[in-house]
Amino acid sequence: MQTRTVGHVPTTTPELLTPVQGIRRELRNAVIGYIGGADSPRTRDHPSDEGWFAPDSVTRRVFADASTMVGGVESLLVQTLHPPTMAGVADHSNYKADPFGRLHRTGRFIGTTTFGSAEQAQRAVDVVRRVHDRVEGTTPDGTPYRANDPHNLQWVHVTEVDGFLRGYQRYASTPLSADESDTFVEEMAVVARALGVPTPPTTVDELDATLQSYRPELAFGAQARETVRWLAFPPNTLPAIGPYAVIFSAAVSLLPGWARRKLWIPPSAPGVDRLVVRPAAKTMLRTLGWILEEDPSLRA
């Protein structure tokens, strides 16, 4: 900060940003706006010490890392395989008319429940549950579905936790230990229970077993194929096309073999993931991490 005197009264004015800081601030606002929308609350910048997760929690560590972008896309790909979940998105989401609305809402929800106060987190959950109350119908084969059905809620929860964990373990600078991974799954169960999942998994082994239990229900129908095509080629702005292509490729490389086969995604050529996709994704995520790193001087 710089201090100057007006008359006899000293006043404090913000310190001028360097050119690099100015560019970084603009990039930071653009990235945050892309994820959470232009009016997204900056809960990540102002985390509450009285939220659902402690300041030193594994959950806050994971969601402060840019690798969650890759894990989030991976989880969306896997979620399309569950017909009731996919029908709910196809029938009640306007993702084609408002392509980034769902991304923004998800980004805000994660940011608020992870870094906000307990009151803010509960309000965010209440909003989601009210929206889910209106999401019901039938799948293309005539099976009834409800978004607030605990079984459907659990599918979304376990695919998200698995995706975020996979992304962090591959792309974060320091992967979680086995105990920390279990802690992450246990901490995320807090959000699942608030949303209406009675007995969410609390260890990695339970998470894997729960995912496997859904496999007989999965199918790659027409709604899923359309959504996967959209995820591969969304209507991005020109500056976002390249970075998103890297994120999507990295997300595909995270898919478990059974999900990749179910999604009709052929195996990569030998060495492509290890020699091309991973280095490109790590470089880009490090850059995004630098852009998003908290710096009080960069606040708009």
3D architecture notes:
The protein has 13 helices and 4 strands. By secondary structure, it is mainly alpha-helical. It has a two-stranded antiparallel sheet with strand order 1-2. Strands 3-4 form a two-stranded antiparallel ribbon. Strand 3 (about 135-140) and strand 4 (about 145) form a beta hairpin. Helix 1 crosses helix 5, helix 3 (about 70-80) crosses helix 11 and helix 5 (about 100-115) runs antiparallel to helix 6 (about 120-135). The longest helix is centred in the middle third of the chain and has 22 residues, at about 150-170. It starts with a strand and ends in an 8-residue tail after the last helix.
Topology:
Elements: E1 2-6, E2 9-13, H1 19-36, H2 58-63, H3 68-79, H4 83-92, H5 101-115, H6 118-133, E3 136-138, E4 144-146, H7 150-171, H8 178-195, H9 204-213, H10 222-232, H11 238-254, H12 257-262, H13 272-292
Antiparallel strand pairs: 1-2, 3-4
Helix pairs in contact: 1-5, 3-7, 3-11, 5-6, 7-8, 7-9, 11-13
